[in-house]
Design a protein that fits this description.
49% of the residues lie in helices and 0% in strands. It is mostly helical. It has a domain of 64 residues. The longest helix has 14 residues.
Length: 104
């Protein structure tokens, strides 16, 4: 089975063997997804090592890992209102008529 150019580059960098690269490609073909995801799921590479090699391979500078390590999921929300479903923001309970228990 042919392996991708990224897998070949990682084999040349001695991060894993050609046989492992073939297993990675089979798994990618079977389950889908990118080779980076497969490598992380299989536990073959640490995220920091993978990011460094991806940056070298693509020529695109990597984002600083310390910025990606612990994202602040609450940043910019302001309140929990943003977490409500859209319909809940506009829904108002019906008013009841006095003494009838029915809506107007």
């Amino acid at each position: 089975m042919p392996i991708s150019s990224l897998a070949s580059a990682l084999v040349k960098a001695s991060l894993f063997s050609q046989e492992i690269a073939v297993q990675v490609e089979r798994r990618r073909e079977l389950y889908g997804g990118g080779i980076d995801t497969v490598l992380l799921e299989m536990g073959l590479l640490d995220e920091e090592i993978l990011v460094t090699h991806l940056a070298n391979f693509t020529g695109i500078p990597a984002a600083p890992l310390e910025r990606l390590a612990k994202p602040d999921l609450d940043a910019g929300l302001g309140s929990t209102r943003a977490l409500q479903p859209a319909w809940a923001r506009f829904h108002r309970p019906a008013r009841r008529r006095a003494g009838t228990g029915r809506s107007p």
